[in-house]
Amino acid sequence: MDVINKSVMDRLGAQSQEFRHTQPYPWIRISDFLYPEKFDQLCKDLPDPVLFESQMGYKRAHGQASHDRLALQYRPALEKVLTPSWRGFIHELHSEAYKDFWREMLGLTSRTPVILTMHWHYAPSGASISPHTDARRKIGSHIFYFNTPEDWEEAWGGQTLVLDDGGKWPRHSAPVYTDLREAGASQVLGNRSFLFAQTDHSWHAVKAVQCPSGHLRKVFIVVANRLTPQVIWRRVRGKDADGYRLAGGVQKN
Fold first, then answer.
1. Is residue 1 part of a domain?
2. All residues at 6 or more sequence positions from 11 whose CB lies less than 8 Å from its CB, including other chains
3. Which of 17, 191, 239, 243 is the most buried (most CB within 10 A)?
4. CA–CA gap between residue 230 and residue 251 (Å, rounded)
């Protein structure tokens, strides 16, 4: 693999049993999952914000506060505007080696389907992601952080927070930060990523970022989905597991 550091991936796989027993749900901070020079190039080649759709202030189900961000869903049509560095990275993420990494981390069989979707999120000053759990079709997320010390400071925030509800809150509810205990957080600088498994209590969030105007928190998220009837039906209708039309054009704000 040219972008993903397979030795790091293998080392994480060897720790998969420990990962699966992490409380309050499986999560891990990861360093150097990508080769340093490839990480640097991907940072330089991030998609232009003009391609992104604004998702600011949208109402969410169950009374949850909005998830504020600019979003760009990966679809095949994007290949024509992505740089070679991003096309190569996404190609490796679609490989069986990376899917096998997910299977190993989650203790799945070698034949278990792992359906991947991917998207970029950029967040301006004041944007936040309220406490939530993900859809049941998702088995986990791998969040790659693409800010550098040249454009971001840890003090500005942007960390993904691991929140513990003590098993008290149903997934279709809207607890606030004071209802939950912060059990951990990701790191956002220095070729970092963050992987967690989806459970009924895998609450996570991002507090409002406090960056100067003109700066953006930049992440690329790989979501691993199980092959559910919903996912199959969406595929029949020409959509990915997240519900985005695969043949859709490039998004523009």
1. no
2. none
3. 191
4. 24
Q: In what order do the strands lie in the sheet with 161-164?
A: 129-132, 203-206, 161-164, 181-185
CA distances in angstroms from 17 to 61, 103, 114, 221, listed in the order given: 34, 12, 19, 23
Q: Give how many domains the chain has, as a whole number.
A: 1
Of 197, 205, 218, the C-alpha closest to 39 is 218
Mean pLDDT to the nearest integer, 47-72? 84
Residues 6 or more apart from 250 whose CB is under 8 A from it?
51, 77, 78, 80, 81
**Tokens (6 digits) for 118:** 């991917």
Q: Residue 166: count other Cβ atoms within 10 Å of its Cβ.
A: 10
For residues 86 and 45, is the Cβ–Cβ distance under 8 A? Answer: yes
Q: Is residue 102 in some structural domain?
A: yes
DSSP-derived pairing of the beta strands 115-123 and 161-164: unpaired
Name residue 135's amino acid: A
List the CATH number of the domain containing 123.
2.60.120.620
Short-list 246, 241, 205, CA closest to 226: 241
pLDDT digit string, tens, across residues 178-192: 999 999 999 999 999
